[in-house]
Specification:
Distance between the termini: 50 Å
Bound molecules: 4'-phosphopantetheine
Structural class: alpha/beta
CATH class: Alpha Beta
Largest sheet: 5 strands, parallel
Strand content: 15-25%
Low-confidence stretches: none
CATH topology: Rossmann fold
Order of helices and strands: EHEHEHEHEHH
CATH architecture: 3-Layer(aba) Sandwich
Number of helices: 6
Shape: globular
Length: 159
């Protein structure tokens, strides 16, 4: 059986925490689709094309990983369309679990698809796209938490 996993998110922008989960997902499935979806609760910072490019250049070394955008769709419909049988998400801690659990249950309710949670690497427990953006906008250094091209793009937004 050819197993396809989907790693959904806003990825605005991708962090090393996300990239760790994507790399670990690729060990669990034959193919991983990194799906950039719309989160109605978040305003976008980077255009989707740029978010995709950040992820593509950071995952070139991983076979079977592709990056796609799905605008205006339910995640479960995307999963069905591409034949994914698994949603993979990283959890940094209890707050993430509280946020992710209703979505995982709703997605299972809608189509039966299961979500697998991977414990986030403790090196990135403090890393979220929104915190990274705030730190850079106020002059902080996020080296080692995002890729260099993401760091430079964030600094360019600030300067
Ligand atoms: O990185 P994020 O912002 O936490 O990702 C959330 C995302 C984009 C995965 C979630 O908002 C989502 O699945 N959006 C697609 C629309 C959808 O399926 N909504 C119902 C979720 S139960």
């Amino acid at each position: 059986m050819h197993r396809i996993a989907i790693c959904p998110g806003s990825y605005d922008p991708v962090t090393l925490g996300h990239l760790d989960v994507i790399a670990r997902s690729s060990a669990l499935a034959d193919e991983v689709v990194v799906a950039i979806l719309h989160n109605p609760d978040k305003a976008g910072t980077f255009p989707v094309e740029q978010r995709m490019e950040f992820i593509r250049s950071a995952t070139r070394h991983l076979s079977g990983v592709r990056v796609e955008e799905y605008a205006g769709c339910l995640l479960v419909d995307v999963a069905k369309e591409i034949g994914a049988t698994l949603i993979v998400k990283g959890l940094r801690g209890e707050t993430d679990y509280a946020y992710e659990q209703p979505m995982a249950l709703m997605n299972r309710h809608l189509t039966g698809i299961e979500t697998v949670f991977l414990p986030g690497d403790p090196r990135y427990s403090q890393v979220s796209s929104s915190l990274i953006k705030q730190v850079v906008s106020l002059g902080g250094d996020v080296s080692g938490l995002v890729t260099e091209d993401v760091r430079l793009a964030l600094e360019a937004l600030r300067d």
